[in-house]
């Protein structure tokens, strides 16, 4: 049976108590984002308003962080630190892009960037901002009553893909695309997905369909296909060559793009989702953090249509189970509202948000 190989945050693998949440080198509080970067692990410790780095995360002996961003030290947890030029407020996604670390600083309604060369010390100052006119502004939609093609409201996830730079602008119920991440720092988005124009922000653009969103979150893709987690509609949408705002080609978690039903507290099987917040694509496979079902689903090949079924489940004994920590005590192979996921080769890292920890699994048979 596939099982976790490492646990970061509080108790080590096999612990039965909920890990502590008090900020420290070791503890986490509601982490929502996790990224594998070579031999390092990057964690958005969301509840502590910081991003942590763990070097050599698969082989190290001490399960504690080496570097903190967003706070002056490992014991602090203040939103925005309190200076927005240094601090973070509910970070949810972090990725290395070229020579930069870019972070979705969601409740400051912006993306921020740090130069990798500056990351040798804690609490370095951010060097770029996307979605706000300057580092000192942190209002939703830049303080305006309506959104536009430059503003953000709760940007929870982003992706640098072959055909552009995508941002899940959850509070505006849309996805924005720029031709590349550098242009996002100075130009309006070239494409708005999920709304009729850049000034609209209605749930499902006023009508449910395959071209609408309710709180879009994670984004990832491979080749000419991108996947967008649409947790408010209990589904993941896939688009082939999304060069215009249009209907999705792929729907996961619902029988069709015209349905968004939820089956609370009931067996879901391998083809239904409840609040899927996180996704990851790697080597023609797709992993989905099926948050409210307390599991991660893995598709061994990328879905190409509607109603396809996952081949693997992590966090539950089978596809019919859905309970938080399997309705039992916390164990190394249980999950409680997993929010973020990253998959590289046969390693999958899960932000086990409700358990205040990161769990590392191997997918080898």
UniProtKB/TrEMBL annotation:
Keywords: Repeat. InterPro entries: 6-blade_b-propeller_TolB-like, NHL_repeat, TRIM-NHL_E3_ligases. It holds the Pfam family NHL. It comes from the Bacteria. This is NHL repeat-containing protein.
């Amino acid at each position: 049976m596939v099982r976790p190989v490492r646990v970061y945050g509080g108790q080590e693998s096999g612990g039965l108590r909920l890990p502590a949440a008090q900020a420290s080198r070791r503890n986490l509080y509601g982490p929502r984002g996790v990224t594998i970067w070579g031999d390092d692990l990057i964690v958005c410790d969301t509840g502590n308003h910081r991003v942590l780095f763990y070097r050599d995360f698969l082989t190290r002996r001490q399960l504690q962080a080496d570097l903190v961003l967003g706070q002056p030290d490992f014991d602090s947890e203040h939103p925005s630190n309190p200076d927005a030029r240094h601090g973070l407020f509910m970070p949810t996604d972090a990725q290395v892009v070229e020579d930069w670390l870019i972070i979705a600083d969601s409740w400051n309604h912006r993306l921020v960037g740090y130069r990798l060369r500056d990351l040798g010390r804690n609490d370095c100052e951010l060097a770029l901002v996307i979605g706000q006119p300057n580092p000192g502004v942190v209002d939703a939609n830049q303080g305006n009553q309506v959104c536009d093609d430059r503003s953000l409201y709760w940007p929870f996830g982003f992706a640098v893909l072959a055909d552009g730079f995508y941002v899940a602008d959850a509070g505006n119920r849309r996805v924005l695309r720029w031709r590349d991440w550098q242009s996002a720092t100075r130009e309006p988005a070239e494409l708005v997905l999920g709304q009729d124009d850049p000034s609209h922000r209605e749930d499902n653009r006023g009508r449910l369909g395959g071209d609408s969103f309710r709180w879009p979150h994670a984004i990832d893709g491979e080749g000419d296909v991108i996947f967008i987690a649409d947790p408010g509609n209990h589904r993941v949408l896939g688009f082939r060559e999304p060069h215009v705002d249009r209907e999705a080609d792929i729907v996961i978690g619902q029988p069709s793009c015209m349905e968004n039903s939820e089956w609370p507290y009931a067996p879901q099987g391998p083809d239904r989702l409840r609040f899927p917040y996180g996704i990851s694509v790697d080597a023609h496979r797709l992993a989905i953090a099926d948050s409210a079902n307390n599991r991660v689903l893995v598709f061994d090949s990328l879905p190409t249509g509607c109603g396809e079924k996952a081949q693997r489940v992590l966090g539950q004994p089978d596809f019919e189970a859905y309970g938080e920590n399997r309705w039992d005590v916390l164990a190394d192979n249980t999950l409680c509202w997993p929010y973020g996921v990253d998959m590289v080769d046969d390693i999958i890292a899960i932000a086990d948000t409700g358990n205040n920890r990161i769990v590392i699994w191997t997918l080898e048979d």
